[in-house]
Structures are given as structure tokens and as C-alpha cells.
Amino acid sequence: MAYSFPEEVLEHVFSFLSLARDRNAVSLVCKSWYEIERWCRHRIFVGNCYAVSPEIVIRRFPELRAVEMKGKPHFADFNLVPEGWGAYAYPWIAAMAEAYPFLEEIKLKRMVVTDESLELISKSYKNFKVLVLTSCEGFTTDGLASIAANCRHLRELDLRESEVEDLSGHWLSHFPDSCTSLVSLNMSCLGSEVSFSSLERLVARSPNLRTLRLNRAVPLEKLANLVRHAPQLVELGTGAYSSEIRSDTFSSLADAFSACKQLKALSGFWDVVPSYLPAVYSVCSGITSLNLSYAAIPSSDLVKLISQCQNLQRLWVLDYIEDSGLEALAASCKDLQELRVFPSDPFGAEPNVSLTEQGLVSVSEGCPKLESVLYFCRQMSNAALIAIARNRPNFIRFRLCIIEPQAADYLTLEPLDAGFGAIVENCKELRRLSMSGLLTDRVFKYIGTHAKKLEMLSIAFAGESDLGLHHVLSGCDSLRKLEIRDCPFGDKAVLANAAKLDTMRSLWMSSCSVSFGACKLLAQKMPRLNVEVIDERGPPDSRPESCVVERVYVYRTVASRQRLDMPDFVWTLDEDSSMRYS
Amino acid sequence: MLSHLNLEATELRLGLPGSIDDVPSNNKRPSPEDHQTPPAPKAQIVGWPPVKSYRKSTAAAKNEEAESGMYVKVSMDGAPYLRKIDIRLYNGYSHLLTALEDMFKLSIGEYSEREGYKGSEYAPAYEDKDGDLMLVGDVPWEMFMSSCKRLRIMRGADARGLASAQ
């Protein structure tokens, strides 16, 4: 019996499905659903640019309007991935320029983007609206000038945390006077000064501007002018927040802020002069997100500001806040959901501030909605971690960095296994965990046993044997990304859990004990995994197979395992089962 | 990082002997490390602690400043050559001025907001970030430290002009 639903009806039904997960499920039902779905999918997310090729994507989804993609593995943020490894955006941009003339959005993370790519984007898509480059590199302000000049309907230009070669601030002046569509502009990562009058005019003619994140070079004296042109702002990142103390500058600034009735997020605050902070007090009650992670000011000044923000949900701050400041935070901000405390002096041998485990304990006690934490400190104890775990079983993300590698519980001198064990046991919804301190195989047993919803795990200087890694790979049912550095994990655990790697996005291991022979074996066993040996000491087959590799990056892929852009320090298995580089 | 070279031992300093005390000022900063006994340098591990590079540079820049000092040139009208001092070594204005008086063998006198350094033939001035010549002492010490690009000890009519114009 064959009956079919009219395609248009199915398409209409599918249009209500926005999550990729749902659309993927739909496309597995039957061939005709697969066909209908692929023609009406407009938005995709590619978590690893090497998991698939541009050709495959274009063949399957001919009508894309928005593409989001990630390139380098997370540890690239900490210089663990050598320069030139890959993640080039150009092949994607070039292929999409031909295939998707109506593409509107491109969002890239940790990819190498050249000026050529940016120029191609600016000239290929008539309706281009959104460009977000997170932690990208490889382009200059000339590329930005192309975007500004040619994208007539640009809504978002967000360069968050990208490394841009700053040739001049002139790029901003390339926005034509006719461009009035801007909704979001984030240039906070740029160094050089843009023409202030161009910036002011741009802001003034953008009535839909909701997000404006300035760079450090925009002086405080000019901030009031900008803010006055955009009282509708929802998110503002200041430039340098310092100036000679003058009452007219202050009152001008305070007045400008008081007109911003919709402001929810504040950031920037480089070079803060505390006397100017009260200028934002009028908006504090509406603030839900505060990024003070560049504000090198003492705890008392931080607290004066934070305690005005009763509705704060997200706080990023430097460890200058100290335990006392975190206690005050816990008392005033009962809606807090996310806290990140960054180290002001990460490479100093001695603590420069009084921030310990106690601060985190206070916040976990006082903030019932706290679910996401990134915390750098110099001492930790099992007792504190256990208390934190009991206080906050609702943690989703818990990332703790004790600055000294392999630091033991400072009270008992024991490993921190019990503490992290308590975290995974109590926090049943935990999706992301980063650990540090002295840890044995035991903590991995706890993780494998309890962390059933864990999707991403970061491990450094931990564990004792392959058993540790085995616990994780065999126990963590939801694991997608595993990144490991400097741990004594090797061949046995990896090979025993080869099949698991097919269910994950990627596995990164650097300075561990995985041999070249095991990498070859894994690649032979698992044809849909790309096993990249990243080793700067020359060809791995010039050394014995039992030799340990510097780094191995394993990821599942439906594209070729011999990517064409491999540099000379990356080796993968080719068809005749020998390791080659292209 | 240059801490392993123990540059402190060979520096010419004008500071008082003993450690540098906490600076009570408008912008209360955490206490600087004790310059006399720098902590043992650690071998830096690549990528640890896991701090992204753009965050490192704020912290590292501060560290580099702490290590190499904030040296500014000091010129005195009529002197044949300039000197250089590390303004981070000083607690505040009186400490700095005492050191300058010592260095150049002169007397600068007391600061008053209204009259500057009246009563002295000399006025300490500095060039700020905008290139303007400013009288030393008007702004909070911390702000001075971050905006001072070079010092100039002026004498004679110019000095009096600068001082009384404040």
C-alpha cells in the first residue's frame, strides 16, 4: 500500500523543527523524508570542519542560509596545537560562494580565516547578514574593511576573541552611510583606534543596534557620546574605563547610562578607575551579565558595583575579587547562574591575592541557581569540593583549575579524587568537567561510574595508568569530547575502547603514552576515524613503533582521511596502511 | 620572563633600603611583590595554566612591568645628560620628589594644589600620554604612574609659570 503525504505539507511540518537533532531524526525515517528534509534545511552546525567536506555538505543540503562551524580542537587555545595544523576556512567559503548565493550567516570558531575569505564573503552573498568569528585568526583589518564596505544588509559583525592583525582602524569608516542595519558590533579584540567620528555616525544611524562592544582604544571621555546615540542598547562593552577624574565627564557618563533602560550586559572595563564605576549604577538593577575580567581593581571596588546588580546571572571577574568579594556576591546575587574567576597573575609563583577554595564554597552555598563555574585558584581540598558538590547538585559545567599542576589537598595532602568524585556523584546533570590537582585512577573510576551525562572532559597531569582512561571511555555514556594532556594513558585503553571513539566527536591526547604502533592499529581497525599523529620530531616511521607520539588527535569523519591541507608534522594512515603526510 | 637573571641585584636604585611598603592611594591595588626577594622562578609549562593568550597579555604585561619596571627619562633644565628612574619603586609623590632632589642635588619644596611648588626655583613636570606638559602632583599617584611618559625638572621663569598657572 503506497500512500503519500503531499511534500509541501511535510515541508511545512518540518519547518517547525529547528533543532538539528530533530531534523537528523526526521531524515532517517525513510528516503522520501530524507529528500524532503534536505531540501528545506536552512541551517547547519558542523562541530569539526574535518568531519565532513564542503562537497558532501553542498550535495546534501542545497538550500542553506546559515552555516556554523568549528575548526581546531579546544586545546589550541592554550598553544598545544602547532601553528599551521589546519582548520582553514577558505575552501569552505569558496565552495559555498558558488553553491549558496543566498547565504546569510557564517559563524566560525577556531578557524583560520584570511582576508581573501572575507573579501569573498563580502562579494558573494547579496543578502549576507551575520558574521561571527570566535577565536579565529589569519585576517587583518583589511578583510574587515571588505565586509564593512560590501555587505549592504549586515546585521552582525562579531569578532569575539579573534586574533586580528591590526593594520589600522580605518576599516570602520568603510561602512557606507547607507548602512543602517547593524544590530550587533563586537570589535573588542582589536587594538588600534578607529575613527571616532565614523564610529559615532555609524552608531547614530543604526536604530536597531542592540550590542556594541568597543575596543580598549575608545577612551572613556567619548563613551557618553556613543551611549547617548544608542539608548536602546542591550549589551555594551566599554573601551578603556579610565580618565582623569573630572566631574563633567562623570556626570555626562552617568546621564548617558541612565537613558539606557534596556541594558542587560556590560563588559570591557579595561584600565578601570574605580571612581568612574558609579556612573553605571543607574542600570545595575537590570544587569544580568557582567564581564569584569579585565578590571584590575581591588575587591572592595568590585563588590560596590556587584552588590548593585541584584539580578545578576552571569559574572566574569578576576581573582582580585578575593574570598571576601565572593562572599558578598553570594549574599547579593541570588540569581547567579554562571561564575568565572580568572587569574590575575597566572604565572606568578606566589599567590598575589587572597582567593582560595573558600570563595567558591561561599558562592555554592549562597547562589541556589549556580550551574556553571570556571574557577582558577591556588589551593583546594576534598572537604571543600564535597561541600560544593552537596550544595549545588544542579551544576552543569564545572571547570576547576588549581594553578600548580598535581596540587594535593592542601589540608590532608591526599589526592583530590574524593572531591571530584563527589562532584560527579552529586551533580547528575553535569555536562562538562575540567579537573586539576593531584588525581589518581580512582577519580576516573568515579567519573566512569557516575558521570553519565558528561559530554566534555578535560584532564591534565592526572591518573596513574591506562585503567584511568579505560574507566572514562567505557563508563561515560554521553561523552563527545575528551581532551587529555600529560597523563600516563596509553595504548591499552585506547585500543580496548576503539569502538567508543566512533561515538564521539574527538579525542585529543598530548604528552601521554600512546605509541605510534597503536595509532596505526587504531586507524586500521576503525576506518571511519581519522587518527592524526601530530609530531614535530619528523616522520614517526623513522622511529620504532613502540615510540610514544607527541600528540594524537582522533576524530570521526565521513570525509577523506587524507586531508589535503596537512602540514608536514601531521601524519595519517592512507590506503596502503602506512602513515603518510600529503 | 627575566626573573632568573636577578636584575634587582645590579640595578641602581634610589629607593630607601628595605622592602617597598603597601601603597595607600586612591586606587588601592593589591600589594606588589616584595622586590628584595623575588620568588624562585618556575619552569613554564606550555599551555599551563590554561589561560587564553589574550588574557595572558593583560596579566603578562603587568608582570613584565613589574619585572622590568616603569622606567622614565628624567631631564633637568641645564643638566648635560638625562637620568632614568623606575617610578614603580616609589610609594608616592613625596618619595619620588625626595629621590629627585637627591639625584639632582636641588630642592623642590612642598606641593600645594593652589600654588604648585611655590618657593622653589624648580618645578617637577611630566609629559603625559597626550604629550602635554603637566605639573607633578595634581592627579592621584596611581594615575600619574600610568600616564607619566617622562619627567622634566624645570627651572627659572618657566617653572614659576607652570607652577602658578595651576
Give me the number of helical elements of chain A: 20
In this structure, how is the largest beta sheet of chain B organized?
Answer: 5 strands, mixed
**Number of β-strand runs of chain B:** 5
How confident is the prediction overall: mean pLDDT of chain A? 95
Largest interface: A-B, 43 and 33 residues
Instruction: Give the CA-based shape of chain B.
Output: elongated
Subcellular location (chain B): Nucleus
Function (chain B): Aux/IAA proteins are short-lived transcriptional factors that function as repressors of early auxin response genes at low auxin concentrations.
Protein name (chain B): Auxin-responsive protein
Organism (chain B): Salvia splendens (Scarlet sage)
Describe how the helices and strands are arranged.
The complex is a heterodimer of chains A (582) and B (166).
Chain A lengths: L6 H8 L5 H8 L3 H9 L3 E4 L7 H7 L5 E5 L19 H10 L5 E5 L5 H10 L5 E5 L2 E4 H10 L5 E3 L4 E3 L18 E3 L9 H9 L6 E3 L6 H10 L5 E3 L9 H12 L6 E3 L21 E4 L6 H8 L7 E5 L3 H11 L5 E5 L14 H10 L5 E6 L4 H10 L5 E6 L14 H10 L5 E3 L6 H10 L5 E5 L5 H10 L5 E5 L5 H6 L1 H4 L4 E5 L5 H10 L3 E6 L16 E6 L13 E4 L5 E2 L2
Helix pairs in contact in A: 5-6, 6-7, 8-9, 9-10, 11-12, 12-13, 13-14, 14-15, 15-16, 16-17
Chain B lengths: L52 H16 L2 E6 L6 E4 L6 H12 L17 E6 L5 E3 L5 H7 L2 E6 L1 H9 L1
Structure commentary:
The complex is a heterodimer of chains A (582) and B (166). Chain A is of the alpha/beta class and 582 residues long. Chain A is 31% helix and 18% strand. In chain A, the strands form 2 sheets. Chain A has a 22-stranded mixed sheet, covered by helices on one side. Chain B is of the alpha+beta class and 166 residues long. Chain B is built from 4 helices and 5 strands, in the order H-E-E-H-E-E-H-E-H. Chain B has helices at 53-68, 93-104, 141-147, 157-165; strands spanning 71-76, 83-86, 122-127, 133-135, 150-155. Chain B has a 5-stranded mixed sheet with strand order 2-1-5-3-4, with helices on one face. The longest helix of chain B is centred in the middle third of the chain and has 16 residues, at 53-68. Chain B starts with 52 loop residues before the first helix and ends with a helix. Chain A binds chain B through residues 75, 77-80, 135, 161, 163, 189, 242, 244-245, 270-271, 273-275, 293-294, 296-298, 300-301, 320, 342-350, 352-353, 376, 401, 403, 405, 434, 460, 485, and chain B through 1, 26-30, 33, 39-42, 44-56, 58-60, 62-63, 139-140, 143, 146.
